[in-house]
Amino acid sequence: MLADPKSAASVRVLPLPPFVVASLRAHLARQAAEQLRAGRRWRDVDGLVFTTSLGRPVHDNTARYVLDVLCARAGVERVNFHSLRHSALTMTTERAGQKAAQVLAGHTRQSTTDRYAHETDGLRSAARDALQEAIDG
Asked: What is the DSSP letter of 14?
């Protein structure tokens, strides 16, 4: 089921890393080939990026199944999509700071982002190194 974003702030331009842009371009090429194969059976539904081979929305259970398969193939513990959001915001906080994570998530309050970004050894080390660098001048 398609739904409007939760807030006006949810409609925004996301900065995507180059590997994501490359993956999306490759996906678009595969999807164009699927559309040609489907011919008149293709149903473009609101310009969706991820669809079935006939252009229809992918069912939630299918997306979960694919994620489970990918986790198994990679030999990692099964995760859910919400866990991926936590991981992305934790890594962003660790490497670029809390404000960057807040912007990426589209949160208006830092306290909301803080629920997603978790303390890590890398974050503690980065804080320690930043303090040392500030003192050393």
From this structure: P
pLDDT of residue 136: 87
Each residue of 24-82: pLDDT tens digit? 999 999 999 999 999 999 998 778 889 999 999 988 899 899 999 999 999 999 998 88
* Closest by Cα among 98, 126, 95 to 113: 98
Distance, in Å, from the CA atom of 70 to the CA atom of 78, rounded to the nearest integer, reads 9
At 90, give phi and psi (nearest 5°). -65, -45
Q: Decide: 86 and 113 in contact? Cβ < 8 Å.
A: no
Tell me the H-state helices in 1-120.
18-38, 60-74, 81-96, 98-105, 110-114
| 57 beta partners | 51
Q: Which of 89, 119, 123, 82 is nearest to 106 (CA)?
A: 89
When computed from its CA atoms, the radius of gyration of the chain, rounded to whole angstroms, is 19
Tokens 């040392």 belong to: 132
